[in-house]
Amino acid sequence: MMRTICVVLLSLAAFQAGDDSKPASSNVRNAAYPRVHDDGRVTFRFTAPGATKVQLQPGGADNGLGKGPIDMTAQDAGKGIWTITLPAAVPGFHYYWFLVDDMAVNDPGSETYFGWARQTSGIEIPEKGADFYEPRDVPHGEVRVRWYRSKTTGEWRRAYVYTPPGYDRDLKTRYPVLYLQHGAGENETSWTKQGRANLILDNLIAAKRAQPMLVVMETGYATKLGATPVQGPTGQPSIPNAFEQVLIDDLIPTIDAEYRTQADRASRAMAGLSMGGSQTMQITSAHLDTFAWIGAFSAPLRNFDIKTSLGGALADATAYNKKVKLLWIGAGTGETSIHEAATKLHAALDGAGVKHTFYESSGTAHEWQTWRRSLHDFVPRLFK
Amino acid sequence: MMRTICVVLLSLAAFQAGDDSKPASSNVRNAAYPRVHDDGRVTFRFTAPGATKVQLQPGGADNGLGKGPIDMTAQDAGKGIWTITLPAAVPGFHYYWFLVDDMAVNDPGSETYFGWARQTSGIEIPEKGADFYEPRDVPHGEVRVRWYRSKTTGEWRRAYVYTPPGYDRDLKTRYPVLYLQHGAGENETSWTKQGRANLILDNLIAAKRAQPMLVVMETGYATKLGATPVQGPTGQPSIPNAFEQVLIDDLIPTIDAEYRTQADRASRAMAGLSMGGSQTMQITSAHLDTFAWIGAFSAPLRNFDIKTSLGGALADATAYNKKVKLLWIGAGTGETSIHEAATKLHAALDGAGVKHTFYESSGTAHEWQTWRRSLHDFVPRLFK
Question: How many other CB atoms are there within 10 angstroms of residue B384's CB atom?
Fold first, then answer.
């Protein structure tokens, strides 16, 4: 009996006295590090015997963990254990990795998340009072992996399809569809894994704040059959690519054939974040007969000219307003240049009389917390 | 025009003259390495500036890439590029990582796969003439991520559920169910990601070699609400754990309530690999009223005693034969000790008159190619 109690006390003593930290919810099971403290501070720990320098590298210049690289301290030089405790981080999901003598290395304690064109570590910092993206005790929809054949690329491709609670019971109900795109260097898994789109929808639908709908998530990269992939700056195919054709010719017909959809423009939305927001603006402008609801989350729409951009699709405000039931533009206040571009676009749209909704996520940067909040604001406005 | 052609030639020149190698299908998109040659040789490449030693570490003692660690060669000391070309590898999926001055590091060119209790690199070596786990031009089922509330653990848990092609069309059809478990250090994603269980089922069903069925895949680790997790040797909770109770009390009732199942023992199978095979033998023996079809793939059933093991469930061969419609035992010939245990068990079952099927996967070890082949042999025997 005494021995058991001693073991527990000893293992607690490994942390600071009064330490309230817990393993991050983004860790693989049983991994003790990284740990999040109640006040939002984060402790990282990494074992690198023989290293002369270990640093924490938050992914991105405006990452909520701070500006990197951040030097870590050797706790026990003999064992090569390096640690750092950061000041309170911005809530939400942050990509990160370690630099061991300048070599990028993932944290074995973290789940991996596809971003930066590779599988990357990430950490979840809870936001006090915000549970709109947590699994609550409400009915849950499914996320379905749907293989489909693309005539455009000649490949079997995979879409992730969210079906709302009750989809398999209410067999006469047909549903509207949101096509939802990730950002550069991410893929079809990102909106549910990093973004928790399914949980956001579950919670909104349970609260009767959103229409039950399907959400279709696909990779926004595609190369036409026989073509040579165009390399982008991150080593990914750059846009313009064949995704527009995949979406219009292959994916939408598959979804409308395989699921109980409302297959008309008034019941079809498209939104995306960053690169996916640019793709959304580009594709919906060229296909206003296909989409009536449009969301650009943190899209880099710099130097946007109402008269000429997107082939002049917004030049005739009256015609655009008649066709488009929602144009939603948003950004985080912490992503300076994109927020500035969005603010300018907002003013230009107002000036030109293009109806739209403008959203600002307070204190968040070019990161997933901005896009979770964006989705949470966007979805309740759809299909009404 | 000429310039374009020159670029292509230059990029080919980066490989050996006459090199027929291609990026592994397990790479993240656009990653050039690792590369698989037509004869099964594999070239790995890793950039580690400042490293004094870089090695390739195949995951596991009998990994089809060879016995590790395997020294890599510095190609260009200034840039820190290290490479190795291995002799022809055993076909199938192999876990691996790099050791950089003894520190384990994933390959940024590889997708990650949950194994070894963390996200790990892996490589797919094609098997000539074997396409039973490839995406063929046949109807594809879905893999659905199903959240459900576990009373046992007090958590929201996730199951992966394969539904066969036509599940959403043939609305009066009810389906039998296979519960399919991963091995130690893996999770609910492993059977579809590493194992390609969904593609194996798609192909068998299309060939009319298997009954359309549901396949339910869950994490075999669980801790009762309020209990302290028991640590296993890999840092994972060890068995015995609360998975039996989760399966019987929470998961099976959820699946039978949410899907069109045939909810009787004659329509319910359980199988698993390695640790999951042991769990299968243990759980089915205690619940023969729940399961009638049983598969143990590469289960470490050493020192198995027909009279006493599993609470003597197999001691009365006549009773067991009457209840159990299929007992399937298998192993790869390359996994010496487990193959030996399976062979002994096969003889003991024969001796005791316990009806069973014995399967050997030729030339494969304690790896996923053994388990893909096991599933491919097991599934056509079910529910007949």
Answer: 9
Q: Same domain, yes or no, for B55 and B96?
A: yes
Please name the amino acid found at residue B280: T
The pTM assigned to this predicted structure is 0.93
A122 membership: H or E segment, kind and range: strand A118-125
**A231 contact B CB<8A:** yes
Measured between CB atoms, which of B118, B137, B140 is closest to A108? B118
Q: How far apart are CA A309 and CA A301, in angstroms?
A: 10
Amino acid (1-letter code) at residue B28: V
Place of tokens 């003259």: B17
Tokens standing for residue B175: 């389906």
- CA dist list (Å): B267 to B84, B212, B334: 49, 12, 33
Q: Can you name the residues that pair with B120 across neighbouring β-strands?
A: B113
Query: Do A119 and B171 make contact, defined as CB atoms within 8 angstroms?
Result: no
What's the CA gap between B244 and B256, in Å, rounded? 17
Are A261 and A359 part of one and the same domain?
yes
Query: Could you read off the pLDDT tens digit of each residue along chain B, which spans 384 residues?
Result: 233 332 233 333 344 545 899 999 999 988 999 999 999 999 999 999 889 999 999 998 889 999 999 999 998 767 899 999 999 999 999 999 999 999 999 999 999 999 999 999 999 999 999 999 999 999 999 999 999 999 999 999 999 999 999 999 999 999 999 999 999 999 999 999 999 999 999 999 999 999 999 999 999 999 899 887 766 545 454 554 899 999 999 999 999 999 999 999 999 999 999 999 999 999 999 999 999 999 999 999 999 999 999 999 999 999 999 999 999 999 999 999 999 999 999 999 999 999 999 999 999 999 999 999 999 999 999 999
Domain membership of residue A137 (yes or no) is no
In a domain, A10, yes or no: no
Provide the CATH number for the domain around residue B29: 2.60.40.10
Measured distance CA(B7)–CA(B13) in Å, rounded: 10
DSSP state string for A264-305: SGGGEEEEEETHHHHHHHHHHHH-TTT-SEEEEES---TT--
Inform me whether the C-beta atom of residue B259 falls under 8 Å from chain A C-beta atoms: yes
To the nearest whole Å, the CA of B373 is away from the closest chain A CA by: 22
Structural domain contains residue B137? no
Q: Which domain holds residue B183?
A: 142-381
A110: which strand partners?
A27
Which two three-digit tokens encode residue B132?
A: 């039973």
Q: Which residues fall within 8 angstroms of residue A310, CB to CB, at 6 or more apart? A: A281, A282, A285, A286
ipTM of predicted complex: 0.92
Residues from chain B that touch A259, judged by Cβ atoms under 8 A, are 168
Domain count of the fold of chain B: 2
Query: A191 and A83 in one domain?
Result: no
Residues B164, B109 share a domain: no
